[in-house]
Amino acid sequence: MDKVRRILVYVCKDRAAPQRAQFVQSVTDYFSGEEKEEAHVSCSPEKEEARVSCSLEKNQFLLYRGDEGRGVRLKRPPFCPIKHLSVTEAALIPLDVKQRGVDVGVAILLQSANQRVLLTRRAKELRIFPNVWVPPGGHLEPDETLLEAGLRELEEETGLKLEPDKVSPTVLGLWESAYPPMLSRGLPQRHHIVVYMLLHSSLTHLQLQASLRPAPTEVSACLWADARLVRAIVLAVDGEDAEVQLGDLPSSISVSQVSTEGALDDSSLPLAVFVSRAPDSGPDVERVSTGTKFALDLWLRTLETPDL
To answer: Could you report how far apart the first and last alpha carbons of the chain are, in Å?
Structure first.
């Protein structure tokens, strides 16, 4: 038997056998009942989310329709390129890309004891989403659990080592992500389902900050965001142009810049960076990723309803 190299998404509903999700197939459409029959190409429904359940079995990430009122939210942005692919455009995607399937990522929202969450800016040299703010995370490797993958990525990217028996993981939601994030920037090259997982630490953000040792090849800056800043971030909805009410937030936000040697230097960035939206065309800008905004919105709801 060939060794499993990547964990891929498999979908099933109505008790049918799981099928490997196709690269050009919208997973969200599959579960919202909006998928076209021909060519695995999606239509353009107004509904951008579904409720699903998930499990990891035999190195397959299984998604199936959630029971009424149960399961977790699966969402995608309205400008998702997989959603808008035409049959002609899908045919132009290289065969080796089409054969990739849909990968699985895990991202960790680490909440400190004083209710801040860790965000990191991806290094500008990275091929996918460079210079964009996200939680620590990465691919799920063979034979890992979701928690093991998240803790491994957290340690690799930030140097923070948490013991599995000292965290209480909660899956906040699933995000269907593609790169480039919209067709105006080119045909999709990667397609993921990202599992956003919330972990609580008994340490304050300052105590955790003392142990931060970011990997400069992956992380160029770090930020402990409080709820006030997060509320502003999630109000800056990508694809919309409504004005964001910033209230009494400061005009600059304290961050830690990561040197090429991995040292942390106190710095600040304009608040405008964190309430920037994904541009419709042209080069991307430094901003918080759309999927991260989705996860942060779910995190805010846990603060309002702590027993979630």
So the answer is: 41
